[in-house]
Structures are given as structure tokens and as C-alpha cells.
Amino acid sequence: MILSKSCVYAIRATLYITAQENREYIPVKEIAKELNLSFHFLTKILQGLTNASLMKSYRGPNGGVAMARSADSIYLIEVIDVMDGLDIFSECLLGLPNCNDINPCPLHEEWAKNRTSIHKMFQTMTLSQIVNNIDKLRLGL
Amino acid sequence: MILSKSCVYAIRATLYITAQENREYIPVKEIAKELNLSFHFLTKILQGLTNASLMKSYRGPNGGVAMARSADSIYLIEVIDVMDGLDIFSECLLGLPNCNDINPCPLHEEWAKNRTSIHKMFQTMTLSQIVNNIDKLRLGL
DNA sequence: GACATTTAAGATAAAGGAGTCTGAAATATG
DNA sequence: CATATTTCAGACTCCTTTATCTTAAATGTC
Prior knowledge:
2 copies of one chain form a homodimer.
Chain A: H1 5-19, H2 28-35, H3 39-51, E1 55-58, E2 64-67, H4 76-84, H5 108-124, H6 127-137
Helix pairs in contact in A: 1-3, 1-4, 1-6, 2-3, 4-5
The first copy, chain A, binds a DNA duplex (30 and 30 nucleotides) through helix 3.
């Protein structure tokens, strides 16, 4: 798995929240139930996104979590950055610390192509775009 | 990291062995020293490759390990398969068990492209080819 | 103000990957 | 046959990720 479980849960949760367009704060309990995730674990994960200012939260009845900005301005890479960091997009496939364009390992060139392609994918997809896909194409979440 | 550390160590070791063209069995101790890996840990990893018949071994003085077949017929994907399995090349990015071409998650199409590209890369590169790269281009290992 | 609801924070536990260590088995050499 | 060398097998430890649980703090409603 290229992304950690925490990161995947974070992505799924932000997509769920984005899909609830006309609602303000969404309770974590609801998200956990709908996505079939552990409530406590998801709570901790979303706290991380809140601390990173990618989401906002509100306590008490009718409270919950929401995206901090408009979902059409939030790119997938931002969620990944908060959860897993961006090292995977620059790391050597063989984990060699000295490997780079000037001093490459034997797999560097081929791997860098794929790495960059994946990076671009995450850099260009917004939460809104993905949710539109869900609506238009009736995709699963 | 897309590949486990064990898998990466296995790849680096098989490349080292492949590079020792005119020698028969190579001691694990030597490989560990040259690649700066833990001897005991590498021993366990290479035993896995031996059990999977990708490598052969010989005990006693002048013993060691060697590739079971000619290195120009061994594809990188075979090493990866033994160590990590091939699930990463069919797994959903979001880990959703029901996601596939017919019933895709919202990221499926984009991800499947990249996943396939990486898979093909590993399916087409032989150990010999990679070692030739090392020699020709003076790449690091 | 009492109470229910909801996130925040942090301690703790469970599981898996990474790494270490010890002793047994095989084999070459003298 | 004794010894040194090397892989084989398995137990064990350590660390990170994943997951659970408990208590505190904030807030809306009556």
C-alpha cells in the first residue's frame, strides 16, 4: 500500500464531507458509521487535519467537522502531505539516500517517471473534482 | 515506501550477486558487508528467495548463495513477488475491496494507469539489464 | 444551571514489520 | 576425525503503525 491506512481514511473522510455540500458541520460519528471506520481512530485522524488547518471543527450538539476551505481549492496532495508527508514523491525506490538525478541508482530513471506521474495526479485532483466523479459516474466510496 | 525494506534488500542483494558474473557461490557475509546490511537479517531474507527457488545455496567453506537461473531470465517482478506479493499491483488506492474496472472508486481510473505502468516496469526489467546499466552508466548500488 | 452531545487530548493495547541472537546442520580442509 | 566455515531454522526483541479506551473541555437546549 503506497499510502498509510490513516492517510486513506483521511482521504475517504474528506471526500465524504465534500459530498455533503449543503450541510455545515458533520459529526465524526456519522462519517465513521457511513465509511465503516472506527470512530475513535477516525477522530484522532481528523484532529490531525484540523490541527493542520485543512479542516475546522465545532464542539457540542450540532457540532462536527468541516473542510476549512472550499473543496474546489483543496488538492488531494494536501491531505497526503498532512498524513504521510511528501517524502514518497522524492524517495529512491531502493531507499538509497544518495540517489538523485546526478548520482542515480540503476532504477532511478524509470522509477522517477512513475513517481512524478503519481505526484502530478495528486497535485491536480481537487476534492470537488473527485466528488463530481462520484456523482456523475455513480462511483463507490 | 512502495516496497518493504525486506524486498528492497532482496533486490539489492540479487543485483550484487548478478554483478559477480564469473563467481559461483557468494557468501551472505560478503553481500551484507558490501551493501551495508545486517548479516542476520539478510540471511533470513535470502533464505526466503532460496525457498522460493529463485536462488540456490550451498553450505560450508566456499559456500554461499547464487541465482538459481541465468540472471537474464529473472525479472524484477519475481523478486518482488516472493517478498511482498503482487497485491500492490491490483489493490485499490483507497484499499476498497470492491473497487475494480466495473465498480470503480473515484480514483480508480487514474490510479490504475500508474499502477499498471509500475507493474510493467518490474515485469520487463531483468536483473542482467539492470546490472548492465550499472556497468555502462557507472550508477550506484 | 442541568444535561446531552460532540470534539480534544492522551494513555494504553494489539499487530506487524524490522532486526538480533543462538544453536543446529552441512561441508570443505588438513 | 577435528575444526572452521557457511547456510538453516526458529525464538526473541524492538519499533512503528493501527486501534481502543477514558477523561476533559466546549457548546446547544431545555
